[in-house]
Write a structure and sequence with these properties.
The protein is mostly helical and 108 residues long. It has 2 domains: 53 residues, no CATH class; 55 residues. The protein has 4 helices and no strands. Helix 3 packs antiparallel against helix 4. The longest helix has 24 residues.
Length: 108
């Protein structure tokens, strides 16, 4: 249940929450209220975990690192293995520094 791929589009978890809310609003049943409460609780717990661990940022840094390496290789098709290794090392070190900096960032 990850985020949406397009701006303005609901993530899967947001859609489930809205479906549960709609079900509860239509029926006003205790069962539907419990489902809505559970789904909302899961979303809140996941968001807190992401903020506490910084996993969302780590994933973004990893994606940027991989994309930067791919861009280098694409823009430099005749680069030697040594040049490629140097570029990879540079981007991996930048990734590691950015992840390490998360340790000193405020949690919330």
């Amino acid at each position: 249940m990850s985020g949406s791929s397009r701006p303005g589009e609901m993530s899967n978890s947001q859609l489930f929450q809205q479906l549960a809310l709609l079900g509860w609003l239509r029926s006003d049943s205790e069962k539907d209220k419990e489902i809505l409460t559970a789904i909302t609780g899961i979303q809140v717990a996941r968001e807190l975990m992401n903020r506490l661990t910084g996993q969302r940022e780590v994933d973004a840094f990893k994606k940027e690192c991989i994309q930067s390496i791919a861009d280098f290789v694409q823009k430099n098709p005749r680069a030697s293995q040594k040049e490629i290794n140097t570029a990879v090392e540079k981007h991996v070190l930048l990734f590691a520094a950015r992840v390490q900096a998360l340790d000193s960032a405020p949690l919330l």
